Amino acid sequence: MTPPDPARRYKRVLLKLSGEALCGAGEYGIDTAVMTRLAEEVREVQGLGVQIAIVIGGGNIFRGLKGFAQGMDRATADYMGMIATVINALALQDAMERIGCETRVQTALEIRQVAEPYIRRRAIRHLEKGRTVIFAAGTGNPYFSTDTAAALRAMEVHAEAIFKGTKVDGVYDKDPLKHSDAVMYKRLAYLDVVQKRLQVMDTTAVTICMENKLPIRVFNLTARGNIRRVVLGEDLGTVVSEE
Fold first, then answer.
1. In the prediction, which pLDDT does 6 show?
2. Cα dihedral 24/197/177/88 (nearest 10)
3. Which residue from 69, 142, 175, 183 lies 20 to 30 Å from 79 (Cα-Cα)?
4. 49-63 as b/e, with b when 16 or more CB fall inside 10 Å?
């Protein structure tokens, strides 16, 4: 494993990727070019000696809440969404291992033929050995989002921060893709996010982070090199922390 770079700021982080970030310019599916770029960026971060875990969403394939809104049973729709995250996790694992980045997928739903079951101590050991660990299937329970899974897994593996990659530069007071006058926040307190109902992470996830003083940084994932920049402590995007 590459020796740690003394310039880096973090030793172990959790990267939260939305499923939508994987479909590139399209609305659905997986863009292999995007997957390859993400894999290369994660490898660069590993090259700094940083241990990186990833929680991945499934919105590019299926969103449980959307299925529920269309009349599906909520639990069934959520399980379908969890399976979508497994598909994304396997695709990212394949992209990473094709460029020589050792990776493990751990899933909260048992699918032993394709991935390891989630075991906290095993996940930590993988990270210590320099492997990237991709957590799939959310928490394994319906009614909980992958945001909540990211907060839980970050705490369980003792990550120092959550980095949430999105298609925009940070957290705005309204959707910047629809409103040209949207204003981006540079700093937010956890309670600000909850009280203003800002689209950072869901309330359960933010509450977990608040209770455990785990910072969240929201940044633009589409700009190449940004993962490395945030890991090294550059002030990109929006940081959510204590006041």
1. 53
2. 10
3. 175
4. ebbbbbbbbbbbbbb
Residue with tokens 């991935």: 115
Task: Write out the two tokens for 44.
Answer: 């660069």
DSSP secondary structure letters along the chain: -PPPPTT-S-SEEEEEE-GGGGSTTSSSS--HHHHHHHHHHHHHHHTTT-EEEEEE--TTT--HHHHHHTT--HHHHHHHHHHHHHHHHHHHHHHHHHTT--EEEEESS--TTTSEEP-HHHHHHHHHTT-EEEEESTTSSTT--HHHHHHHHHHHTT-S-EEEEESSSSEESS-TTT-TT--EESEEEHHHHHHTT-SSS-HHHHHHHHHHT--EEEEESSSTTHHHHHHTT---SEEEE--
Token pair for residue 59?
């919105």
Angle at which helices 120-128 and 146-156 cross, to 10°: 70
pTM of the entire predicted model? 0.91
> Angle 217-60-237 (CA atoms, 0-180°, nearest 5)?
15
User: Could you tell me the two tokens for 36?
Assistant: 């390859």
Q: Per-residue pLDDT tens for 193-208?
A: 999 889 889 999 999 9
Domains of the chain: 12-241 (3.40.1160.10)
Q: How confident is the model over 58-94, as pLDDT tens digits?
A: 888 877 667 767 888 999 989 999 999 999 999 999 9
